[in-house]
DNA sequence: TGAAATGAGTTGCCCAGGCAAGTAATCCCG
DNA sequence: CGGGATTACTTGCCTGGGCAACTCATTTCA
């Protein structure tokens, strides 16, 4: 008898609906708001900013493309095209990994580091205004583990397919 | 004396960084995961699903395009093109608002309602798996008001520009 | 009342990203 | 040691969305 389960009806109740609606707005509108500021002030997207930031945090500011794609939540084709643009502007340099020729290493150049440093302050201010300022200290504390769990689940979903 | 304020350094501390990183993964990867399921099972995007769902909840399943754009967190051009696709598939019908010829009313057709009904169960299941299942009851309770605040702030940002 | 201003919606152009197919390097295993 | 799998990355094709410019309806106000 495979009727629907009691604890998991196929619909969302009102509380769940409220959470879901708020999350939907955040995932749709927040990237748009971040993109707008960054595009205006720095000519790059939020996603591109994230790639630069991840790379800058790596040892020697150098990473394998596949690792960079993973931490940036990017597909490989998408990252590949971002790298084309970055290389054209001399923000990164690609070279084959001497340890294994299948991998490609991406290294942030000095110009790339500078671009990131220039763009950071206004971007961080925007993140503060949109995300941190509206929250109480308690809300921030509660939010982190909850979002981390969702993030981990979503990551698994995209990798596992 | 307009130096930087003590309580608002231009950088994120470690706790903030953790929250921000988790939120970034969610806003980038969650739509991708939702899109993948919906595209595979229903041939529509998460965004399009949201538009259908919003319209279905309206009185008479009819709304002005500008209102529909607002509740769907959409620009007008974007919604306009979604409507082109929907009308081509006979999921919605557009007609001028008799009360004010500048507005356009969009009404969900029977076929549109059916498409939504067909797509809903798997989509809701995916939302459950990715968002609700990983959270404890307490986390869900805390999450809702926090996300609602961020959502409201981001909405204002995009409208006010 | 009529010309300018406002507001809703659409269109065209351009670019970014997904997917599937292609290339290249390495590994596996007889 | 050699040919087929596996893994990393790139390329081409197509679609979706942003922006700016346009059209059309309504309001404002001189």
Strand-helix topology:
Two copies of one chain form a homodimer.
Chain A: H1 14-42, H2 46-57, E1 62-64, H3 65-71, H4 76-88, E2 92-96, E3 104-108, H5 110-132, H6 137-160
Antiparallel strand pairs in A: 1-3, 2-3
The first copy, chain A, binds a DNA duplex (30 and 30 nucleotides) through helix 1 and helix 4.
Please explain how this structure is put together.
The structure is a homodimer of 161-residue chains. Chain A has 161 residues and is mainly alpha-helical. Chain A is 67% helix and 8% strand. Chain A is built from 6 helices and 3 strands, in the order ααβααββαα. The first copy, chain A, has a 3-stranded antiparallel beta sheet. Chain A is globular. Chain A starts with 13 loop residues before the first helix and ends with a helix. At the A-B interface, helix 1, helix 5 and helix 6 of A face helix 1, helix 5 and helix 6 of B. The structure holds a DNA duplex (30 and 30 nucleotides).
């Amino acid at each position: 008898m495979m009727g629907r389960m009691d604890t998991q009806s196929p619909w969302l109740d009102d509380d769940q609906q409220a959470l879901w609606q708020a999350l939907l707005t955040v995932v749709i509108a927040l990237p748009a708001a971040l993109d707008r500021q960054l595009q205006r002030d720095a000519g790059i997207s939020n996603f591109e900013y994230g790639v630069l930031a991840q790379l800058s945090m790596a040892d020697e500011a150098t990473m394998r493309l596949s690792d960079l794609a993973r931490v940036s939540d990017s597909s490989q084709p998408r990252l590949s095209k971002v790298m084309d643009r970055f290389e054209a502007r001399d923000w990164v340099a690609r070279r084959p990994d001497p340890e294994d020729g299948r991998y490609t290493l991406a290294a942030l150049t000095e110009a790339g580091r500078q671009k990131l440093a220039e763009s950071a302050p206004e971007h961080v201010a925007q993140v503060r205004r949109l995300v941190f300022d509206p929250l109480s200290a308690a809300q921030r504390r509660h939010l982190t583990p909850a979002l981390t769990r969702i993030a981990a689940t979503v990551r698994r979903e995209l990798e596992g397919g």
